[in-house]
């Protein structure tokens, strides 16, 4: 293989592909990234056997070929190169990297040892605009768990219903639900069972830039989900685990409801969170007739109180939350007017977007003394 690429292109694509590289694998090949020429371009592939990334970039190809090299070392080297043209040339299982005043070589492994990312795309489930992907998936992805002890909670539930797809994510302390994700005529039949997609894959999809549409494929034979976006393909192994019966924990009604300005509430919680760091991030919301009083109290530090204008429906009430969960929610949901519903200080609180019945976010409260 002998090709010429631009440093900037290689840095961006290699950095993106590296998100799928294994961090602690006993298989040396999973620490590598695969470089191969395909259809007049350079294709980069990486996988840790749970997720995989395949992405292509422009290249001037003199000789076709392929090789795998240590991803971390290669990325560090490429990031140190000047913005110029880079020549990549293989000699056996060695990759020579040369550009202006820099010449390096990396010992690699042959392509034959690298696992195939996928055998088939599978069935097309849905094709969404990038705007639709970011709006719908970003509203739920943050609520999934990063822990691997309960595999189901590290995924996002994708359930097709007659009115559209339903996306659900929960870590056991909070839950996000997005309904009515549009279904085109090309979508698969509605009798397909719900699937669990690794949230790690969704996070990588959300990091993709560009205005291209994203097509989602499901292969039940290989138990994989595949996202195709522009010149990149992201693959994830479907999670085979029983998802919690999330419908049972969503309150059917409420005794207290407030409507508030999201930005004003977000600023108030950020302020109170400063005083809540030493007490488990606990902040209290006191729902009153014309306002919400947000407060935090740490005896060794001090206390703080912020008033936010709000419209109350029902009875006055109080509830306490982990400030981190509230800030995560506000950072990932774009809306101006929001509502909050509750039935008591020990029952889940539900946030909604005013004039948008398709979304809700539920947070479990914290029991406080006094």
Offer a concise description of the structure.
This protein is of the alpha+beta class and 370 residues long. It is built from 6 helices and 25 strands. The model is unreliable at 185-191 (pLDDT under 50).
Outline the structure in words.
- Strands 14-11-12-13-25-24-23-18-21-20-19-22 form a 12-stranded antiparallel beta sheet. Strands 6-2-3-4-17-16-15-10 form an 8-stranded antiparallel beta sheet. A 5-stranded antiparallel beta sheet has the order 5-1-7-8-9.
- Mean pLDDT is 91; it is low at 185-191.
- By secondary structure, it is an alpha+beta fold.
- The protein has 3 domains: 2-113, DNA Polymerase III, subunit A, domain 2 (DNA Polymerase III, Chain A, domain 2); 123-149 and 181-247, DNA Polymerase III, subunit A, domain 2 (DNA Polymerase III, Chain A, domain 2, Roll); 250-363, DNA Polymerase III, subunit A, domain 2 (DNA Polymerase III, Chain A, domain 2), CATH 3.10.150.10.
- The N and C termini lie far apart (71 Å).
- It has 6 helices and 25 strands.
- Helix 3 (130-141) packs across helix 4 and helix 5 (262-276) packs antiparallel against helix 6 (323-332).
- Helix content is 18%, strand content 44%.
